[in-house]
Automatic annotation (TrEMBL):
Taxonomy of the source species: Bacteria, Pseudomonadati, Bacteroidota, Cytophagia, Cytophagales
Any Pfam family the entry gives: YgaP-like_TM
Alphabetically ordered keywords of this record: Membrane, Transmembrane, Transmembrane helix
The keyword Transmembrane appears for this protein: yes
Protein name (database record): DUF2892 domain-containing protein
InterPro entries in the cross-refs: YgaP-like_TM
Length: 70
């Protein structure tokens, strides 16, 4: 798959995932929502790690800088 998540987007996604996980772990997020928050954090972190966001695909969005072949 073609990467569509740029460097700043990647850093932002990983930071948000860490913050969400910490909030859920420290019980600031209610217990009945903790599992959902963990899953959302995992998906956000995964898209940051593999640099492919499936929600960007249908809209043609890419935050990656394309390298000029010339």
């Amino acid at each position: 798959m073609k990467k569509n998540v740029g460097k700043m987007d990647r850093i932002f996604r990983l930071a948000i995932a860490v913050v969400l996980a910490i909030l859920a772990y420290s019980k600031i997020i209610p217990a009945n929502l903790a599992l959902t928050v963990y899953i959302v954090a995992a998906v956000i972190a995964l898209t940051g790690i593999i640099r492919v966001c499936l929600l960007y695909k249908p809209f043609g969005i890419s935050t990656c800088r394309e390298k000029n072949p010339f």
